[in-house]
Amino acid sequence: MRCIITGGNVKVLGKAIHSLSRVGDELYVEPLQDGLSLRAVNTSRSAYACFLFAPLFFQQYQPGGQGSGSVAETVRCKVLMKSFLAVFRSLPSLEKTVEKCLISLSPRASRLRVQLHCKYGVTKTHDLSFQECESLQAVFDTEQCAHTLRALPRLLVDAVVHFPLTLAEVTLEVSQGGRVNFRSYVEEETEPSRMMVTELCLSEDEFQAFHVQQETRVTFCLKEFRGLLSFAESTSLPLSIHFDAPGRPAVFALEDSLLQVHLVLATLSEPDGSSQATNGTPCPFAPAYDFTGDDIDSYMIAMETTTCNDTGRTKQLPSPTFPLRCTSPNPGQTDSDQEGAVPGTPPQKKFRSLFFGSLLSQSQSLSHAEPSQEVLAEDSEGEA
Amino acid sequence: MRFRAKIVDIGCLNHFTRVINTIAKLAKTCTLRLTVDKLYFILADKVANGGVSMWCELSQGNFFDEFQMEGVAAETNEIYLELTPENLARALKTAQNAKAVKIKLTNKHCPCLTVAVELPSLSSSSRIVTHDIPVGVIPRKLWNDFREPSVPDFDVSIYLPVLKTMKSVVERMKNLSNYIVIEANLNGEMNLKIETDLVSVTTHFKDLGNPPWVLEDGSQTSTQERDPESMAEARIDIRKLLQLLAGQQVIPTKALCNIVSNRMVHFILLHDDVSLQYFIPAHS
What DSSP letter does each residue of B84-136 carry, written as one string? Predict the structure, then answer.
């Protein structure tokens, strides 16, 4: 494989590497007939990203070494993300100094060569050691996803910026009524009084496409999503979000004639039954839509409840245990077992792996069931 | 117990944000006291805080376009909340180009201070961001812990030099020692000193001026009997001092400090509508 990238496209490649580095520690390089594919997967296999650069993206693109078109000679490999990222570390200097970038990989050579031809005749050559490997392919089908949103990346960047950097996951909620909600995901173990919950509400009009068949909420990791967004923002291509029921992967896609990007993120599967009371957040769709409607009494909530027995309260008290739905991995997913070449580590969270469909911890207990009403009761004690 | 307030003016919002950022730099958790006219951010002096205490006071009228509150009872129309100011600062950070910001007390999964931000959007309807900041409601029997500290019976009171200058001096001294000695006299002179086994560094400030303090009975304070040349000194934790100096985002109209020899240093920073008092205990 041999390809040459020139001008502004070098920076696009650099940004893509930055985005991929948010996902995994290894970069899978696969020269295909329809373009160069760069992929990454995280250790828990709950996130997978694939950038496919079409041959038109390059000034020159030869996927199969010398004899072009000979599939036999095609080499797939993986390199350490860290070393590949180091080549493209500084995006501003990449833009300023690099005129041409040459990437070559031949089955006989023991190195993947990345050459940066810079201003003033400076040439930087990076020889990266690689490992031959099988093709890495996550199993997903955007056609099968029930719901699709499409928006300019700017909108999603503006949405995500409101969430603290320390936040791991975000919940996306959509309703047929045309509302799109992003909310901080609070883990069940977290004491509700410790964490700030942020919620953002967008209206359907801000999206280019809004196909929602039923009210749904999915929870996914923010880190990888942020990485993709910063790439997407630089391209200004509309970003599509395909998702389905909780637990099914969500697919984030960018597409144009030169480039195809897919980010697949596992979503948190929800326990059976009503999910409302589980993650400690209040019932859905009850946020401040009344921002403009200034009905004072409706949102000045009296907090001096000395008893906990009003109906709304009791409903929210979570039961100590939840039965978890045990979905057996579907056949499509088991098939993909062989395809993944990296040894898998168990998912850290309850995310199902995209490859193995591994399941979550069965037992979970809620220790923070006690609402923090006691202090309020003391208040009235003081009155006496 | 009810509370809601609204800021529309962008200038007020920025000003309020700066105040909150300052508080967030000074205290991990603090008490927010709400009264009809004022907001107070209080850090009571506890051993856990290293003996440092803070009292910040702002008049709501200068910040909020609407401000409604209802305390526990008519005769004690106040609310005391335990708050992580960092959360509030974070919430306000996302409100930089907001059309309006509402802050209200709500009872969601726990008592919360909800910051609702109305942001401009591409469509006709605004984007709404809400941040639910968990707070603790402080029962009335504990309110006494959060009384306004009285001005200590100081030996010397002196105006501070430009805080930025002082900050850059203290920043450098911090690399050399954990403690700093502040000393000042009634002749408008102040020294910042560090003393270690290896090095002694002193920065001298002069012509700072001593603020006139008048006692309630109209007489001048006892400091008048002091020898104007004699220094009063206190040795304090340099990080605490730097925290105060580094946290200042607006130049105060007046900044002064009162030194109680070997006991504490009391800083007062005055803005038009905000006053901040900060107490750092002395180490022997």
Answer: -HHHHHHHHHTTTT-SEEEEEEEESSSEEEEEEEEE--SSSSPEEEEEEEE-E
Are B54 and B149 a contacting pair, CB within 8 Å? no
Q: Rounding to the nearest 10 degrees, give the CA dihedral for residues A228, A230, A234, A236.
A: 60
Q: Which residue of A has its CA nearest to B67?
A: A296
pLDDT(A105) > 80: yes
Contact B132 A197 (CB under 8 A): yes
Nearest-CA distance from A284 to chain B in Å?
Answer: 12
- A195 interfaces chain B, CB cutoff of 8 Å: yes
**How many beta-carbon contacts under 8 Å exist across A and B?**
138
Other CB atoms closer than 10 Å to residue A68's CB: what's the count?
A: 12
**Which residue among A196, A200, A303 places its CB closest to the CB of B107?**
A303
- B90 to A196: CB separation less than 8 angstroms, yes or no: yes
CB contact under 8 A, A199 and B133: no
Q: In angstroms, what separates the C-alpha of A304 from chain B's closest C-alpha?
A: 6
The ipTM (two decimal places) reads 0.81
The two tokens of residue B172 are: 């450098």
Asked if pLDDT for residue A227 goes beyond 60, the answer is: yes
Number of neighbouring beta carbons within 10 Å of residue A144: 11
| Sequence-separated (6 or more) residues with CB below 8 Å from residue A69 | A33
Backbone dihedral region of A357: left (phi > 0), alpha (psi from -120 to 50 degrees) or beta?
left
- H or E, element range at A116: strand A111-118
In A, minimum Cα distance to B82 occurs at A193
In a mutational test of the B interface, the residue from A200, A294, A380 whose CB has the highest number of chain B CBs within 10 Å is A200
Residue type for A64, please? G
Q: What CA–CA distance (Å, rounded) separates A375 from A65? A: 72
CA A181 – CA A172 distance, rounded (Å): 6
Smallest Cβ–Cβ distance between B109 and the set A205, A281, A291 belongs to: A281
Supply the DSSP string of A198-250, one letter for each residue: EEEEEEGGGSSEEE-SS-EEEEEEHHHHHHHHHHHHHHT--EEEEE-STTS-E
Inter-chain residue contact A291 with B133, CB threshold 8 Å: no
Write the residue in B1, B91, B127 that is nearest to A202 by C-beta.
B127
Place of tokens 């430009």: B162
Residue pointed to by tokens 């985002």:
B249
Distance (Å) from the C-alpha of residue B161 to the closest C-alpha of chain A?
Answer: 37
Instruction: Report yes or no: B262 and B284 within 8 Å, Cβ to Cβ.
Output: yes
pTM: 0.77
Instruction: Give the distance from CA A38 to its chain's centroid.
Output: 16
Residues from chain B that touch A198, judged by Cβ atoms under 8 A, are 91, 94, 129-132
Q: What is the pLDDT of residues B48-58, one digit of tens each?
A: 667 889 999 99
The helix/strand count (H/E) of chain B reads as 4, 18
CA end-to-end span of chain A: 83
Q: pLDDT tens digit string along A331-357?
A: 344 344 434 434 444 444 556 555 443
Q: In sequence order, what are the beta bridge partners of B113?
A: B105, B133
